[in-house]
Amino acid sequence: MVCGAWAGCFPARSHPPARSFAKAALTWHFLRFRIGCGGLPDAMGGVFMSAERAGYGAVRIEELEGWEGIRKRPGMWVGSTGERGLHELVFQVVGRVVNDVLAGRGGDCIDVTLTRDGGVRVADNGPGCSFTAPRDAGGPGLEALLTSVCAEAEPCGRHIAYVSHSCFGGGLFVANVLSSRLTAEVRCEGSRRVQEYARGVAAAPPAALGPTAGSGTTIVFWPDTEIFGTTRCSFAVLAERFRQVAFLNRGLGLSLTDERPAGGARAVSFRFPDGVRDFVAALDAETGAVLRPDVMGFEREDPRMAGTMEVALLWSGSGQERIRSFVNSRATREGGAHVDGFRDGVVAAVTAYVRERGLPAADTDGCADRMGEGLTAVVSVKLDRPEYLGATHELLGNTDVRDCVGEAVREHLGNWFEEQPSQAAQVVDRILRNTRQD
Fold first, then answer.
1. DSSP letter at 161?
2. Residue 438 pLDDT > 80, yes or no?
3. Cα separation of 290 and 404, whole Å?
4. Which of 33, 151, 192, 225 lies in disulfide reach of 144, CB 3.0 to 4.6 Å?
């Protein structure tokens, strides 16, 4: 059965809304039944039944798109029913809060706790998302997000951090349906309201539980043992992803606490005031190098690509090239236009340096492949309209991004060469020396 979950894999402009796409996909699936009379024989000599005879109609499709469809095929929404899918469930809940923070609808801190009884608590210090009234940004209330996949359509825009790895989305509704229990608490305007759910179904309307200080939203959920082979989250896996998200969104605070160990709770917290500069320094430290203050980095907004870029890099003693790239906080492991532009800018800056100082220009011929030796870099772009090549969103295809990033890297790296002459000489000399040895 093809359902609305697949709609998240395709560019938004190339298909109708998820619900319509699901129906169209099902119609396509049964197209062979409509040719001729009485159905067509399959490759094994049997006869396919018509869609009508098989009992599938609009009502059945609607059912599979909602609660029943998610529980029947959880892998289409969270990737698997193993540990990977369990972590994806957590990422989707945390991702909603991160997106609210980046869009200015939340506070600046998100606390995630793995509770002793197997639950996951996600709390924020934002203004509190009303259960029923639309949010200030015009979005649905919390109750709608918990009970309808359509209420939380696939996000778009540069202020969205793709914390989850899935391209299907679903957010709070999927987490609710795939949890045996879920509790939603809102602290807003001095009052506290709570609503309980069981496998996606509300036990009662939101109830007022008295006054409270502060504001924010807390979601606690217990992944369903009927769905997942394991409901024990990995502290290390969650911590690494939260750390990465904090690096890519400067100033965002993310903490993770594990109450399960018998010897006492363990906790980590992340907040990086220098963003991707801190990211590069940390990557370089993983090679055994001492943290260095000479990370070159910059941030720029460019209307030509309808977005912003944040780039940081350094050359160290390691001979390895380590370039990490991201689009709207989603890792692009295959690179794409932003990485190509970064490489273009580095080559242009080094070439200009060589020519301005009268070094043998011939030495720069063919050196592009060697410029990455010892280079550690992070290239992060946030785009209003990212265009990916492929359904996995790991290869960026926006052609204008390459020119914009290349131009910015050439300019800023060239300025850094001017401001750091001794380090510039070492970097360029090493590149040219390696090229001569080839």
1. -
2. no
3. 32
4. 151
Q: Determine contact, residues 83/139, Cβ cutoff 8 Å.
A: no
DSSP code, position 4: G
Helix, strand, coil distribution of the chain in percent, nearest 5: 40, 20, 40
What six digits make up the tokens of 353?
Answer: 């340096």
What is the chain's length? 438
Question: Which H helix or E strand runs over 94?
Answer: helix 83-102
Q: Which two tokens stand for residue 34?
A: 């409509």
Record the tokens describing residue 69, joined without a space: 């469809």
Q: Residue 437: how many CA atoms within 13 Å on its side-chain side? A: 7
Q: What is the pLDDT of residues 107-154, one digit of tens each?
A: 789 999 999 999 999 999 888 777 876 555 456 788 888 988 754 544
CA distance 80 to 86: 8
Q: What pLDDT digit, counting tens, does each position of 391-427 carry?
A: 788 999 999 999 999 999 999 999 999 999 988 888 8
Give Dmax (Cα) for the chain. Answer: 81
State how far the Cα of 234 lies from the Cα of 227, in Å rounded to an integer: 18
Q: Do the Cβ atoms of 364 and 353 come closer than 8 Å?
A: no
Torsion (CA) 71, 77, 82, 83 in degrees, nearest 10: -130
Contact call for residues 223 and 86 (beta carbons, < 8 A)? yes
H/E/C letters for each residue in 15-28? CCCHHHHHHHHHHH
Q: First vs last Cα of the chain: how many Å apart?
A: 56
**What CA–CA distances, in Å, run from 252 to 102, 219, 300, 363?**
9, 19, 19, 44
Residue 425: partners with Cβ closer than 8 Å, 6 or more residues away:
none
Q: Are strands 322-327 and 330-331 parallel, antiparallel or unpaired?
A: antiparallel
Q: 186 in the Ramachandran plot: left (φ > 0), alpha (ψ -120 to 50) or beta?
A: beta
Give the C-alpha distances (Å, rounded to integers) separating 426 from 267, 318, 374, 389, 432.
Answer: 41, 14, 12, 38, 10
d(CA 121, CA 183): 9
Instruction: Please give, one letter per residue, the 3-state secondary structure of 35-50.
Output: CCCCCCECCCCCECCC
Q: Are 347 and 270 in contact (CB under 8 A)?
A: no
Confidence at residue 368, expressed as pLDDT on a 0 to 100 scale? 65
* b/e sequence 76-103, b meaning 16+ C-beta within 10 Å: bbbbebebebbbbbbbbbbbbbbbbbbb
